[in-house]
Design a protein that fits this description.
It contains five helices and five strands; from the N terminus they run βαββαβαβαα. By secondary structure, the chain is an alpha/beta fold.
């Protein structure tokens, strides 16, 4: 499960926290600043499931560079090592900068990127991909973001574009990526 919704995947985590058969990767706004108040970097599973729950909380104001860097440094290597039977992609778009509920600053093109890259991971591992649409509280931005996700899945380059927003939180994200890699190094080659 790759969950990129702005909220932590707390329900999925609760169900599979001890299960080594399910890999959960959740990127979300820091739980200290947004409901449900969970999904901290140290939450990595229990017992046999240790290392199969991966949380990366982003500070408010994080943008495309932070998300892309974290995705590229964490997701492909771990998914390829896990070799899933199916990839479930929760593609919540409440991370868009215009979303009134949260404080992440992603723009339309990044949703195309994530969908394209997750599709490639599916093709390299299991060739099975379930994409879930959920999250997004600005209707106009949600439609455009989901359009870009569909384009990424289909390989259509005519996407909705908008100017990038400077990512002033990249250094914090880089430190969190390093910490997450250190924590996960007992379980994955990253």
């Amino acid at each position: 499960v790759i969950d990129l919704d702005v909220h932590h995947a707390n329900g999925t985590q609760d169900i599979y926290y001890k299960d080594p058969d399910i890999l959960l990767i959740s990127f979300h706004q820091d739980g200290r600043t947004l409901y449900p108040g969970s999904g901290f970097i140290e939450e990595i599973g229990e017992n046999e499931g240790k290392g199969y729950t991966i949380n990366l909380p982003f500070v408010p104001g994080s943008g495309n560079e932070s998300y892309k860097r974290a995705f590229d440094e964490i997701v492909p290597d771990i998914v390829l090592q896990f070799t899933p039977d199916i990839i479930i992609y929760q593609s919540g778009v409440d991370t868009h900068h215009s979303d009134p509920l949260a404080d992440i600053l992603l723009t339309y093109p990044i949703y195309f990127y994530f969908a394209r890259e997750i599709k490639k991971l599916s093709e390299k591992t299991c060739n099975k991909l379930l994409v879930l649409f959920g999250g997004g509280y600005n209707s106009d931005a949600s439609v455009k973001s989901y359009y870009n996700i569909v384009c990424g899945l289909l390989g259509v380059e005519e996407i909705v574009r908008e100017d990038d927003i400077p990512d002033t939180k990249l250094e914090i994200t880089i430190e969190r990526i390093k910490e997450l890699k250190r924590i996960l190094s007992d379980y994955w080659s990253i």
